[in-house]
Recover the amino acids of this structure.
């Protein structure tokens, strides 16, 4: 039976519940998702409950990340959206008035940043929880979240760099 069950390549929500009321540890609940990560252990043997909690925490801590989840994505996404839209308006106006080729690079960086922000699947890259079935040998696939984030940082840095380069040409 177990060999016929297909496991998906990516899981973004996982729940597990163990319940045996007659045992010293009566229940263990693991609930991981985009909005919450919750571990609950209960039972009559307090020392065993604390040991299980510490063991689960110790085992899961190396796999945790500081940045991720829907709230983080929404907050950072809205701030970056405002930055890119403001930059497109400002750099577009600046380029229209000066017609410097380096002023055009500010506009290009702003548009590229907005496109990255809108079309990269950030919900997959900065998920609150993600579990992957297999390890990919391809560098670009293994490090897609980091590469996308680095591209966004480069585009963000390119906007002020382009501005200062255009000022030095005068």
């Amino acid at each position: 039976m177990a060999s016929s069950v297909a496991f998906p390549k990516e899981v973004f929500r996982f729940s597990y519940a163990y319940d045996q009321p007659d045992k010293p540890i009566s229940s263990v609940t693991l609930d991981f998702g985009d909005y919450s990560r919750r571990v609950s252990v209960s039972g009559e043997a307090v020392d065993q409950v604390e040991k299980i909690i510490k063991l689960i925490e110790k085992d899961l801590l190396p796999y945790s990340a500081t940045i991720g989840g829907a709230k983080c994505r929404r907050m950072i996404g809205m701030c970056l959206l405002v930055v890119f839209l403001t930059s497109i308006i400002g750099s577009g106006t600046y380029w229209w008035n000066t017609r410097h080729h380096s002023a055009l690079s500010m506009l290009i960086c702003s548009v590229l940043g907005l496109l990255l922000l809108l079309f990269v699947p950030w919900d997959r890259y900065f998920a609150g929880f993600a579990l992957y079935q297999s390890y990919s040998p391809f560098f670009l696939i293994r490090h897609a979240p980091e590469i996308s984030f680095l591209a966004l940082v480069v585009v963000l840095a390119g906007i002020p760099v382009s501005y200062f380069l255009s000022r030095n040409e005068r």
